[in-house]
From TrEMBL:
It holds the Pfam family BPD_transp_2. PANTHER family: CONSERVED COMPONENT OF ABC TRANSPORTER FOR NATURAL AMINO ACIDS (PTHR45772:SF9), CONSERVED COMPONENT OF ABC TRANSPORTER FOR NATURAL AMINO ACIDS-RELATED (PTHR45772). GO terms for cellular component: plasma membrane. GO terms for molecular function: ATP binding; ATP hydrolysis activity; branched-chain amino acid transmembrane transporter activity. This is Branched-chain amino acid transport system permease protein. The chain crosses the membrane at residues 25-43, 49-71, 78-99, 105-128, 135-156, 188-210, 244-264, 276-306, 327-346. It comes from the Bacteria. Residues 396-643 form the ABC transporter domain. CDD domains: ABC_Mj1267_LivG_branched, TM_PBP1_LivM_like. InterPro entries: AAA+_ATPase, ABC_AA/LPS_Transport, ABC_transp_permease, ABC_transporter-like_ATP-bd, BCA_ABC_TP_C, LivM-like, P-loop_NTPase. It comes from Nocardioides panzhihuensis.
Length: 658
């Protein structure tokens, strides 16, 4: 077993040493090879071969539809049952435009993709603000509606039987000649393979663009949306726009699958596009690995092959021969059973489980080295000379900010001035309004009253993605990380590219993108080193200890190069050594000019690192001044430490000693 794990590790290490350009070229070569292997048995052109090629085409169509669905359901976390409807749209629009209407294939295809993308935008405008079951229901209604229309709308041919789009045969040969090269000869004219060549060519292009997109900063932004809208917004992502774009691309890919179907089957009937087909596409995503880049493609190959091949008929025959003539599972039943078992055994899908396995092996082998030993010297030592660094200018000005939740005044006309290059502590008992104040500054809440100025610019009421672009980043009371991604990927998500990279730049992945990704990787590693997590760069964030998860969140916040950083209880859950490390990091960041608001219950940390402190109670400011002034203020003692005041000189607080 050890030998095996070392092999896994060394393969992975060798793979990571290959340059990204080479890796992408290898991926492309692998796709082309798979296509050749798939198409080879069909090259003789007889009847059996056509059935084989239709199977390959169907797999290709379901694959592109499934990876498209993965963008929305796997990455953005919106489970859609509407992908079959997009597939049907693609098939019918293409059928009517090209196969029936005679529009050249290479013109009809982009028009179809555009129509499907617009349908996706339309759906997103209505549904993208929904989450969970409500969203899924809307997409289910779409799938049912499209199927109903296909079945019952006479124009589509239901009155006269199914619309067979090849009834009016058109001369595809002349229409599809591009630069003297014929892409699509007549469907049943003996060169059926070249239809498949077009289909596979488009599949390869779609998969390469999709892979580029999902592995880019754009893809990271979509994963952030899947984690939580709030987190994505605080990483600079315009959440709604990003969802709409994801829908458009996903729907176009669904439509492309339908185009393949129309090209290869040349006969459309509504039954092929019922809601169960949508479920099949979703199953392909889940079985292959929802949220993994290539899992859905693997899932699509397996699901379609199982459904269409005769492999399962033997099992049905065996049941009938040896068990019962009446009670046996036919192909759909066996597929259902296999899928249910697979979902229980491999909840992260085939590729998700495999990559978790590889990651675990690699971590076990490459992190035998203990993390750099931490110097747990007294936290009090950090206080030396801190306040001298504070400058006179304000990095952040909060003036009379107020927030009500119904009858509750959570933040009551709060003023706070954060001097440049200083740390301003915000303390107060539970429910005092500290996190609400942080949310008002970062844009998570809109103030009912008051003004927030960042470097002199009024940012009150702006969305978090706008605020972060002005130079304000934050961490959360409970660390918000992408638990399935590595520490390195988490930090990369913090760079401004996450919110700003356009999808087409990401999909095309020109040379500049390779350079930029390499730069981001180096900068992310430098940030990990800074917070003491370099050794954990390839460890998944979900398996990090609490203290390290908090440090990782700080590294990610620093990636946006903020002028002001808000830390919401960064010491909560840390052991004393980790608190010392945190204090050291904060003072180091301050000496580099970063201004910070430190919302904290840990009084030792507050008195050691802050330059000024504001104490809140019941939404209002009750004291402000230097740490020693505020921590010895009698009002503060009363409201914050209450009953302990008279019984102790040194009162134990939640996080430390005062
Ligand atoms: N979104 C919300 N909707 C309704 N009430 C809220 C909301 N956010 C905060 N509150 C309420 O506002 C008050 C202040 O909460 P807040 O979380 O800001 O306090 P806090 O000082 O950060 O407390 P803690 O130290 O426990 O985190 C609480 O009474 C809380 O229940």
């Amino acid at each position: 077993m050890t030998q095996f794990s070392i092999t896994v590790t060394s393969i992975r290490e060798r793979w990571s040493r290959i340059s990204p350009q080479r890796r992408d070229a290898l991926f492309l070569a692998l796709l082309v090879l798979i296509c050749f292997v798939a198409i080879a048995p069909g090259l003789d052109g007889d009847g059996t071969a056509i059935a084989h090629m239709q199977l390959i085409g169907l797999i290709a169509g379901t694959t592109v539809a499934a990876v498209g669905l993965n963008l929305v359901s796997g990455f953005a976390g919106l489970i859609s049952l509407g992908q079959g409807a997009m597939y049907a749209m693609g098939a019918y629009v293409f059928g009517y435009l090209s196969l029936k209407g005679g529009l050249p294939v290479l013109i009809a295809i982009p028009i179809c993709l555009l129509v499907c993308a617009l349908l996706g935008v339309f759906l997103a405008l209505g549904a993208a603000r929904l989450r969970g079951p409500q969203f899924t229901m809307v997409t289910l209604v779409l799938a049912v509606l499209v199927h109903k229309v296909l079945v019952e709308w006479p124009v589509l041919g239901a009155a006269s039987g199914y619309p067979n789009v090849l009834q009016h045969e058109t001369g595809l040969l002349s229409d599809a000649t591009v630069l003297g090269f014929t892409f699509v000869p007549p469907l049943y004219g003996g060169q059926f393979a070249s239809v498949l060549v077009l289909v596979l060519l488009l599949t390869v292009v779609a998969l390469v663009l999709y892979r580029n997109l999902s592995r880019s900063a754009w893809g990271r932004s979509l994963r952030a949306v899947g984690e939580s809208d709030m987190l994505a917004s605080h990483l600079g992502v315009h959440v709604f726009r990003r969802k709409v774009a994801a829908f458009a691309i996903s729907s176009a890919l669904g439509g492309l699958g339908g185009i393949f179907y129309a090209l290869l089957f040349a006969h459309l009937q509504p039954e092929s596009f019922d809601v169960f087909f949508s479920i099949t596409i979703l199953l392909a995503v889940i079985l292959g690995g929802s949220g993994t880049v290539m899992g859905p493609a693997v899932g699509a190959v397996i699901v379609v092959w199982l459904e269409r091949s005769e492999a399962l008929e033997g099992i049905t025959r065996l049941q009938r021969d040896y068990l019962s003539e009446q009670w046996y599972l036919s192909t759909p039943g066996i597929i259902g059973l296999i899928l249910v078992i697979a979902l229980f055994v491999l909840p992260r899908g085939i590729i998700g489980t495999a990559s978790d396995f590889v990651a675990k092996r690699t971590q076990r082998d490459s992190h035998g080295v203990p993390p750099g030993s931490l110097d747990a010297s007294s936290i009090a030592g950090l206080a030396t000379g801190t306040s001298a660094r504070a400058q006179a200018t304000a990095a952040l000005d909060v003036i009379g900010v107020t927030k009500r939740f119904g009858g509750l005044l959570a933040v009551d006309h709060v003023d706070l001035r954060l001097q440049e290059g200083s740390i301003h502590g915000v303390i107060g008992p539970n429910g005092a309004g500290k996190s609400s104040l942080a949310n008002l500054i970062s844009g998570a809440y809109r103030p009912d009253d008051g003004v927030v100025r960042l470097g002199g610019v009024d940012i009150s009421g702006r969305r978090p993605d706008q605020v972060i672009r002005q130079g304000l980043a934050r961490t959360f009371q409970t660390p918000q990380l992408f638990s399935g991604a590595t520490a390195l990927e988490n930090v990369k998500a913090g760079f401004a590219d996450t919110g700003q990279l356009s999808w087409w730049t990401a999909a095309l992945k020109l040379r500049s993108q390779y350079r930029r990704e390499a730069e981001l990787e180096q900068m992310a590693l430098a940030l990990l080193r800074r917070v003491g997590l370099l050794e954990e760069a390839q460890v998944s964030a979900g398996s990090l200890a609490y203290g390290k998860a908090r440090a990782l969140e700080i590294a990610r916040a620093l990636a946006s190069e903020p002028k002001v950083l808000i830390l919401d209880e960064p010491a909560a859950g840390l052991n004393s050594t980790e608190v010392v490390e945190l204090g050291r990091l904060l003072t180091e960041l301050r000496s580099n000019g970063l201004s910070m608001i430190l919302v904290e219950h840990h009084m030792d940390l507050i008195s050691a690192v802050t330059d000024e402190v504001t104490c809140m109670a019941q939404g209002a400011v009750i004291a402000r001044g230097t740490p020693s002034e505020v921590l010895s203020d009698s009002t503060v003692m009363d409201v914050y430490l209450g009953e302990h005041r008279h019984s102790h000189d040194h009162v134990a607080t939640e996080g430390g000693q005062l």
